[in-house]
Design brief:
2 copies of one chain form a homodimer.
Chain A (H helix, E strand, L loop, with lengths): L8 H4 L3 H19 L6 H8 L3 H7 L3 H25 L4 H22 L1 H12 L3 H23 L9 H16 L1 H4 L6 H15 L3
Helix pairs in contact in A: 2-5, 5-6, 5-8, 6-7, 6-8, 6-11, 8-9, 9-11
Chain lengths: 205, 205
């Protein structure tokens, strides 16, 4: 007694995955034009021609959409940072490039995607999972570079590794966290190489 | 032909100086209760029982009053910082105490005089003369401590003094500038000793 396979909704229309990306793409554009904080899911639904109920089938809330946009953007930044660090094997140079790339990516977002900036500040002040993951990724990267520099004999080994890595991250944080960076952009491009040099002096064996 | 001395207005009523302090005291209390940004000179005049015109005889604008309040508060903080630094002759310890006192004073203002906090953030974002003078005072103090530590053989002398002092100030700034400090208060008391230790490692001869 063969039964026909249950109808697959994927075949009849776009997959859930596709609809989700469609909503995220449209929302990125919409928030990019009108800002995240000031718009509602209703505004968004109207603008992209979906019903509000249909959007809620895929996302619990406006924040859930914002969170995906934020995670996408932060993934791009993390990939750029990892790539910049990967271009050299020298730990001191890796720290310099990491710092530089993070600041450049933040400034780029602030100056060229200003309307998306409020997603960044909201995610940072509410500690969204994507913001926390970004923070964690950068902290781990700092620790890896410090460990690598110690192994290569470039950095001192007396201070506990955790303490060193954490303090370095604290120096970088005002240029990483968007809530702080927005008050730090004036002069950030001159400040960060000086801070990187101070960090490297603190790491001298 | 003796003429009588011109009548002295000081004798007839309160001196300009007294009226100015009276207005500043009343405004400090008033802004402390209702905030600086949201109140006007009219509100203030009504509350302290002077006419608006009378207040304008002594101050050009609300900002001019705010500026005196801000300068008074920053003078108190600078005196506290100078006193903390003066309690030791060891340059490394002076840097630690400077950092600690600045952060404590900022936190105190934020948590205990929250309504005056918006004068602090406004003065920092608009770079009022008092905010600039405070910044300058702290920068000069850092340079003095670094010079003293170099003379005493506690600190390295290879890096140009200006570069060293400036980079140290950049590390401190997120905990000094109220625009940054308000996003940094969580964990500031743990972060600042770690940053001070990193600074001291960077200064090792």
């Amino acid at each position: 007694m063969n039964t026909a396979p249950p109808p697959s909704p994927q075949i009849r229309g776009p997959s859930d995955h596709e609809v989700r990306s469609q909503i995220v793409d449209a929302a990125t554009e919409y928030f990019g034009l009108y800002g995240y904080e000031k718009t509602t899911v209703s505004d968004l639904a109207k603008a992209i021609g979906f019903s509000k109920a249909y959007i809620y089938k895929f996302f619990d809330s406006k924040q859930a959409i914002g969170e995906v946009i934020c995670a996408n953007r932060l993934s791009t930044i993390m990939a750029a940072v990892d790539a910049a660090v990967g271009t050299t094997n020298s730990a001191p140079e890796q720290l310099r490039r990491m710092f530089k790339t993070v600041v450049e990516a933040g400034s780029e977002l602030f100056f060229n995607d200003r309307k998306l900036w409020d997603i960044a500040t909201t995610s940072a002040s509410e500690m969204w999972p994507s913001a926390r993951a970004y923070d964690e990724h950068l902290r781990t990267l700092v620790a890896q570079i410090v460990r690598h520099g110690r192994d290569a004999g470039d950095f001192e080994r007396k201070t506990p590794l955790d303490e060193t890595a954490n303090a370095i991250y604290l120096v970088m944080r005002p240029y990483v966290n968007p809530l702080l960076l927005q008050h730090n952009l004036d002069g950030a491009l001159e400040a960060t190489p000086q801070l990187a040099s101070l960090i490297l002096r603190s790491l001298a064996p």
